[in-house]
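Renewal narrative, Specific Aim 1. Our central claim is that a sequence can be written position by position from structural information alone. The example that follows is taken directly from our test logs and has not been curated for this report. It begins with the structure tokens describing the chain, in the order in which they were read.
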């Protein structure tokens, strides 16, 4: 069911050249692939790796690809939230160019046999994904985060380091549960919503709303 996990072509590119790239590269190379280029839309950004070149923007990516064998190339979009929508867009654009999307799982993460992990997800060190959880494409479950039984993460959702989703939680597209936050059972987090760091979500969070505090209350929409 999850045979795409840690199945890499020989060479990988990362789109996103800051902290997420630094976390993802060691996982990719642990499984025998090699990161050969980094791309980012930020002008004059320094490469996160002294031994890997960085290129600015989509046009430089297209130019670089003209010199490459695309059948040997995979990609990972190393852009965290609140940019889930951008991560999804770039994921789809790179796949349309013929590059293979990688599903990156740290060797210390634990995933239940009957959990479903979407293409392009990133599951980091010490993360847990429990029974019958379902993750859409390009989701991130960050370091030490917990996704419990029957949770649903729609495309582009992110669970930040140390955050906890109790059972039967539903996260909408590109929603974000920030570091150390807790979402109680059966809560629904709307698309593009944010549960702030350390918050405890005790009731549903509407789409495009930020909630903070214990219990969590809206501060913006």
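The sequence written for that structure reads:
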């Amino acid at each position: 069911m999850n045979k795409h996990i840690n199945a890499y072509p020989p060479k990988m590119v990362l789109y996103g050249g800051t902290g997420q790239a630094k976390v993802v590269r060691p996982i990719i190379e642990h499984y025998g692939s090699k990161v050969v280029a980094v791309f980012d839309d930020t002008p004059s950004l320094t490469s996160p790796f002294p031994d890997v070149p960085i290129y600015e923007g989509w046009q430089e990516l297209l130019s670089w690809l003209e010199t490459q064998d695309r059948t040997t190339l995979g990609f990972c979009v190393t852009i965290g939230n609140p940019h889930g929508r951008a991560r999804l867009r770039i994921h789809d654009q790179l796949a349309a160019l013929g590059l293979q999307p990688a599903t990156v799982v740290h060797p210390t993460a634990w995933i239940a046999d009957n959990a479903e992990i979407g293409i392009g997800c990133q599951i980091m060190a010490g993360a847990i994904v429990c029974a019958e959880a379902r993750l859409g494409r390009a989701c991130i479950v960050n370091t030490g985060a917990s996704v419990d039984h029957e949770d649903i993460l729609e495309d582009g959702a992110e669970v930040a380091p140390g955050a906890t989703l109790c059972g039967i939680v539903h996260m909408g597209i590109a929603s974000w549960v920030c570091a150390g936050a807790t979402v109680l059972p059966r809560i629904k987090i709307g698309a593009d919503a944010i549960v702030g760091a350390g918050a405890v979500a005790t009731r549903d969070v509407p789409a495009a709303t930020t909630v903070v505090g214990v219990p969590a209350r809206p501060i913006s929409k």
